[in-house]
Structure formats: structure tokens, C-alpha cells
Amino acid sequence: MNNKELSLDITFLFPNTMSTYGDSGNILALKKRCEWRGVEAFIHYCDIYDSIYPSDIYFWGGGQDIAQEIVSNNFSQQKIDFLNNEVEKSKVFLLICGSYQLMGKYYIDSNGNKIEGLGILDVYTKSSPKRMIGNVVIETNKKLKLGNKKIIGFENHSGQTFLGKGVEPFGYVKIGFGNNGFDKTEGVIYKNVIACYLHGPLLPKNPHLTDYIILKALENKYDSNVTLQKLDDSLELKAFNTLLNRLKIQS
């Protein structure tokens, strides 16, 4: 299939309400790495009072507790059902920090208030007095079959997330705290959903993960095998390996 015949719709969920940590850079990375290959990328922005645009990739970033509560309180059952159906249809989702928590069953904040999640992912989160901050390196779950299995990011969260039986970790912590600081897991995967605590922003730091997301979205949309044209990632890989070396992790 000719790349010029390919296109992807990408929806940025709640860009004004939940985009605290500069995670909009993930949208830019997806868009540019599509365009450099001749794949058209159409970006749609959907906030609290907007209908969710049906897309091939959904990105949802992080926010403070109050922002999560606002979004949770304004989520109609229709929107929850829509997102759940998209997940089950193997649409690709990238969820960072607060959105990771909200897609789960519930979140207990620092005041003991229970914020109901969407219940789409089998995870729950509770606030901790200890803030987990710093660089993170993980080894990704073998099921993802990433060429480069290491992922770099930056975490800044007090929520401790615990996984249920219906999901698996995105990866396993080499450096950092991860989901909760105890079990050495980071993030979660379910079908084509990747949810994690990794800021950075994540995708510009990890071009191999960006390409994985693009590839999965294309394969799901066109129901066929797709080969991505290789890009010159020499600068990205140099930055990636430099950070690994600083953290004393072998590339």
C-alpha cells in the first residue's frame, strides 16, 4: 500500500482542561512522523463540552486533581460508552498520568475523596503523601514487540496505581518509581491502549514508540500489514542513548 494513500485521524482529548505537563508534544511527534512518511494526519481537539471525534488514535494527557474531578463530573454515559467501544475495536490510545487514572475504576485523592473513573481499564489509584518524581527507564512488556525495548520518560505523580487481572504492565522499572513505587511495574496495556506516568513528552523522547503507535493505528484502520518507511533518527537516538548513559543504563 502506497503511503500517499494512507491517513490517520488523531484526537487530542481535553487539551485545555488536562494538558498540564507539556504533553501536547506527543501530538506534534505523531503528526510529524506521519507527515515525513507521506501519511496524512488530521488532528482534532475535543474538550469537555465537545463531541468526541471518531479517530484512529486518541491522546489524553495529565492534569491536577481538580481538573480530573471536573472532567469526571462532566463525562456523560454516552461518551464513556463511545470510548469503551473504541477501545474494544482496538483503536489506539495513549494516556498519560491523570488520564491513565481516570480511565480506571476510581481515584482516591489526597483529601480522601473518591473520584469515579470511567471504568474502562481494570486499575485503581490512591493518593500517597510521597511524591514520585524523576527520570524513568523501563523495559517494555514483551507482548509489544518493540525493536528497542527501553523507554525513557519523566514521572511526577503522587497517585499510586494498582493493576487488576484484566490488564498487563506497559513495562518494568529499571530506574524510577513506576505505577506505585512497590511492584516495579509501570503503566498498563490493554488491546491497543498504552497508559503510563511518563512525561517528557514521551513520544519525542522515544521515536520507536511513536512509530509503534502509528503502525498499530494504520494496521487497525486498513486491516492489512503496513510497512513504515525508515526515518533518519540519528539525533533522536543520540539524545536517547546520552540519557541512558547518564543514568548508567546500557543501551
UniProtKB/TrEMBL annotation:
User: Catalytic residues?
Assistant: 97 (nucleophile), 199
Write down the chemical reaction(s) this protein catalyses. beta-D-GlcNAc-(1->4)-Mur2Ac(oyl-L-Ala-gamma-D-Glu-L-Lys-D-Ala-D-Ala)-di-trans,octa-cis-undecaprenyl diphosphate + L-glutamine + ATP + H2O = beta-D-GlcNAc-(1->4)-Mur2Ac(oyl-L-Ala-D-isoglutaminyl-L-Lys-D-Ala-D-Ala)-di-trans,octa-cis-undecaprenyl diphosphate + L-glutamate + ADP + phosphate + H(+); L-glutamine + H2O = L-glutamate + NH4(+)
> Known EC number(s)?
6.3.5.13, 3.5.1.2
- Kindly list the positions annotated as binding substrate: 131
Q: Name one GO molecular function term.
A: carbon-nitrogen ligase activity on lipid II
* Pathway(s) annotated for this protein in UniProt: Cofactor biosynthesis; adenosylcobalamin biosynthesis; Cell wall biogenesis; peptidoglycan biosynthesis
Q: Which UniProt keywords apply?
A: Cell shape, Cell wall biogenesis/degradation, Cobalamin biosynthesis, Glutamine amidotransferase, Hydrolase, Ligase, Peptidoglycan synthesis
Claim: Transit peptide is one of the keywords in the record: no
What Pfam family is a match, any one? GATase_3
List, alphabetically, the InterPro entries matched.
Answer: Class_I_gatase-like, CobQ_GATase1, GATase_3, Lipid_II_synth_GatD
Q: Which domain of life is it from?
A: Bacteria
Q: Which SUPFAM superfamilies match?
A: Class I glutamine amidotransferase-like (SSF52317)
Keyword ATP-binding among UniProt keywords: no
Q: Which GO terms describe its biological process?
A: cell wall organization; cobalamin biosynthetic process; peptidoglycan biosynthetic process; regulation of cell shape
> Domain named CobB/CobQ-like glutamine amidotransferase: which ranges?
10-206
Function comment: The lipid II isoglutaminyl synthase complex catalyzes the formation of alpha-D-isoglutamine in the cell wall lipid II stem peptide. The GatD subunit catalyzes the hydrolysis of glutamine to glutamate and ammonia. The resulting ammonia molecule is channeled to the active site of MurT.
Q: How does it assemble?
A: Forms a heterodimer with MurT.
For this chain, the family text in UniProt reads: Belongs to the CobB/CobQ family. GatD subfamily.
Q: Which PANTHER family match?
A: DETHIOBIOTIN SYNTHETASE, LIPID II ISOGLUTAMINYL SYNTHASE (GLUTAMINE-HYDROLYZING) SUBUNIT GATD
Name listed for the protein in its UniProt record? Lipid II isoglutaminyl synthase (glutamine-hydrolyzing) subunit GatD
Q: Which organism is it from?
A: Desulfurella multipotens
